[in-house]
């Protein structure tokens, strides 16, 4: 919900969050909503390549949708693999709520704090 809050609350410089779901629709959501942010707060979401309930895929689609709808919005995805190294794609086979996706979802990627989160905040200070 941090992403939705940041996109709809004035006075927030940026939001960088770990493994956040699409706040407007889920993978099989019968009542999906269209994102309509009232503020163009820069956001970055860090996902595991294999994340619980395919969150990497749905979250990546959310960011892509935001970028297509709002050209002035900075919305980024960072994806990491099992070894916490950056990669470019989600593993679409990670659809279960159990297994490696769950294990990776519950770990905090401490070695990525500086480049994935803090660098983003430094680039987007409150003006």
Helix-strand topology string? HEEHEEHH
Q: What integer value in Å does the Rg equal?
A: 14 Å
Q: Total domains, how many?
A: 1
- C-alpha end-to-end distance: 23 Å
Q: Strand fraction band?
A: 5-15%
* Largest sheet report: 4 strands, mixed
Query: Total number of β-strand segments?
Result: 4
Helix content: 25-40%
On the 0 to 100 scale, the average pLDDT is 91
Q: In one word, what is the shape? A: globular
Helix-and-strand structural type: alpha/beta
Number of separate helices: 4
Looking across the biggest beta sheet, what order are the strands in?
1-2-3-4
Can you walk through the features of this model?
With 127 residues, the protein is of the alpha/beta class. It is built from four helices and four strands, in the order H-E-E-H-E-E-H-H. The protein has one domain (2-22, 40-123). The chain has helices spanning 2-7, 55-69, 100-105, 113-123; strands at residues 15-18, 43-48, 75-80, 86-87. The radius of gyration is 14 Å and the shape is globular.
Brief summary:
The chain has 4 helices and 4 strands, in the order αββαββαα. The protein is of the alpha/beta class and about 130 residues long.
Describe the secondary-structure layout.
Elements: H1 2-7, E1 15-18, E2 43-48, H2 55-69, E3 75-80, E4 86-87, H3 100-105, H4 113-123
Parallel strand pairs: 1-2, 2-3
Antiparallel strand pairs: 3-4
């Amino acid at each position: 919900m941090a992403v939705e809050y940041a996109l709809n609350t004035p006075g927030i410089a940026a939001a960088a969050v770990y493994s956040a779901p699409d706040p407007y629709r889920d993978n099989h959501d019968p009542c999906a909503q269209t994102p309509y942010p009232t503020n163009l707060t820069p956001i970055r979401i860090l996902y595991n390549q294999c994340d619980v309930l395919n969150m990497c895929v749905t979250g990546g689609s959310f960011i892509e949708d935001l970028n297509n709808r709002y050209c002035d919005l900075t919305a980024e995805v960072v994806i990491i693999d099992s070894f916490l190294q950056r990669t470019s794609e989600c593993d679409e086979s990670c659809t279960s709520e159990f297994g490696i996706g769950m294990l990776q979802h519950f770990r905090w990627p401490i070695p990525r704090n500086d480049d994935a989160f803090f660098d983003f905040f430094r680039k987007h200070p409150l003006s």
